[in-house]
């Protein structure tokens, strides 16, 4: 009988343990490991951050201005007086001094004037543009002051520098020294961050602003000439009004005198007529006898 060979089955590899069992083993290992200490540091850091946030100043509701891509806090700008404004002269612009070293104020200068004060500002004494401006006011001084305006130059120069400037150019008006630029800033002619703009400012005795602007040497003196001309015209109109009023008064007085004389003549005529009638009556009585 022939031998039959049987095939052997291939050996089977052992099956991998279930994943759950591995997870359980890992979990058991985790439980057996010592627990880590609680993280106290982060909580402390959180509390510190909260306190710092509460202590920080509140942010402004207005957005900061950006200059060259960087934020800067908003700047306060002084209100510049304009023509027609009425300023309070008391304390306006603070104390200044003349080139002679005399302390004064704008109010004191206005009080001494007849019609008001004209201030022309210049950046620096004895420089070409400022010399030209000062000499223009010098050459027109008689015309500018004829109506009662008082002329002053104003700069941030020292009394010594302004005295040298005044003497060298034979200026007939005082030069005011304002090193702190308090008055220069108050009249709106201070440059930022520092310096003085060339310009003109004029105010009458009541504190009304007559001129307030920047300008060239010629431009500033032209403004002053215009103010002087307006004052002269107003004075002439006032004189004409006075003459007209005097004429009317004289006419009324003349009419009054004429009326009184006419009334006197009438009374005299009535008296004469009465006398004549009385004489006629007497003559009639004599004829009857």
From TrEMBL:
Comp. bias intervals (Low complexity): 25-50, 57-67
Biased composition (Basic residues): 1-10
Entry similarity comment: Belongs to the peroxiredoxin family. BCP/PrxQ subfamily.
InterPro entries: AhpC/TSA, Peroxiredoxin_BCP/PrxQ, Thioredoxin-like_sf, Thioredoxin_domain
Any Gene Ontology CC annotation: nucleus
Region (Disordered): 1-79, 239-289
Pfam families, A to Z: AhpC-TSA (PF00578)
Enzyme Commission number(s): 1.11.1.24
Biased composition, class Basic and acidic residues, residue ranges: 250-269, 277-289
Main location: nucleus
Annotated keywords: Antioxidant, Disulfide bond, Nucleus, Oxidoreductase, Peroxidase, Redox-active center
Keyword flag Cell membrane: no
Domain spans labelled Thioredoxin: 50-233
Subunit structure comment from the entry: Monomer.
GO molecular function: thioredoxin peroxidase activity
Name the record gives this protein: thioredoxin-dependent peroxiredoxin
Entries under SUPFAM superfamilies matching the protein: Thioredoxin-like
Record keyword Flavoprotein present: no
Gene3D superfamilies referenced in this protein's UniProt entry, alphabetically: Glutaredoxin (3.40.30.10)
Cell compartments where the protein resides: Nucleus
Biological process (GO), any one: cellular response to oxidative stress
Reaction(s) the record says it catalyses: a hydroperoxide + [thioredoxin]-dithiol = an alcohol + [thioredoxin]-disulfide + H2O
């Amino acid at each position: 009988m022939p031998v039959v060979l049987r095939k052997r089955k291939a050996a089977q590899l052992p099956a991998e343990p279930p994943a759950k069992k591995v997870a359980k083993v890992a979990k058991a290992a985790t439980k057996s490991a010592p627990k880590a200490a609680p993280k106290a540091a982060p909580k402390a850091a959180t509390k510190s951050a909260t306190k710092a946030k509460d202590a920080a100043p509140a942010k402004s509701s207005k957005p900061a201005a950006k200059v060259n891509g960087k934020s800067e806090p908003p700047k306060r700008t002084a209100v510049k007086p304009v023509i027609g404004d009425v300023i309070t002269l008391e304390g306006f612009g603070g104390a200044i001094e003349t080139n002679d070293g005399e302390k004064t104020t704008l109010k004191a200068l206005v009080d001494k004037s007849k019609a008001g004060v004209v201030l022309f500002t210049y950046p620096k004494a004895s420089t070409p543009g400022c010399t030209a401006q000062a000499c223009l006011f010098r050459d027109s001084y008689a015309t500018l002051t004829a109506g009662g305006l008082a002329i002053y130059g104003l700069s941030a120069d020292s009394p010594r520098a302004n005295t040298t400037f005044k003497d060298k150019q034979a200026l007939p008006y005082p030069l005011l020294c304002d090193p702190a630029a308090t008055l220069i800033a108050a009249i709106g002619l201070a440059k930022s961050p520092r310096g003085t703009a060339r310009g003109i400012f004029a105010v009458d005795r009541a504190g009304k602003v007559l001129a307030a602007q920047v300008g060239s040497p010629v431009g500033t003196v032209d403004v002053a000439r215009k103010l002087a001309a307006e004052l002269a015209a107003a004075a002439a109109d006032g004189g004409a009004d006075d003459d007209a009023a005097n004429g009317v008064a004289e006419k009324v007085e003349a009419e009054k005198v004429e009326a009184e004389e006419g009334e006197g003549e009438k009374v005299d005529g009535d008296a004469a007529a009465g006398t004549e009638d009385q004489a006629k009556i007497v003559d009639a009585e004599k004829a009857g006898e």
